[in-house]
Amino acid sequence: MNDLKVAAYDEPGEVDFTDAMAVMEKAFDSQFGEAWTVQQLRSMMGMPGSVLVIGRTGDHPVGFGLLRTIVGEAELLLLAVDPSHRGLGYGRRILDRCLMVAERSGAESVFLEVRDSNPAVHLYSKAGFSQYNRRKDYYLGSAGCRYDALSFKAVLVRN
Q: How much is the pTM?
């Protein structure tokens, strides 16, 4: 885990989106329809308050997080780790950097939404997020299956 380097980018011109897309293609199972396109990433990065956090081992991207902060709140839009690098603490390190970026930008809380069967629910709970809502049958998978969405919130500690 010590070889992970995490960098945050808040300008679209600074980002090589191929790093995030390389992880995206591996990390998101197509049956759930959760992966974003490179156009969606570029568009989000063009919005004020958006930050892309990328974790790399050497030159190899292994994970990323995408968040947006606005008026004291942040939303974690995506968090992904290459399946071959899961269980090594990389997801938590990338999540922690996202939370740090949110706090430094003035956010007092961070929100996220995730499919109820997503194994990352455990990661979010361990990181201090609490579930406050369930949206029944919110997500539609590629095979027509519906999945509940869970809404989480973390309150950032202010020093």
A: 0.92
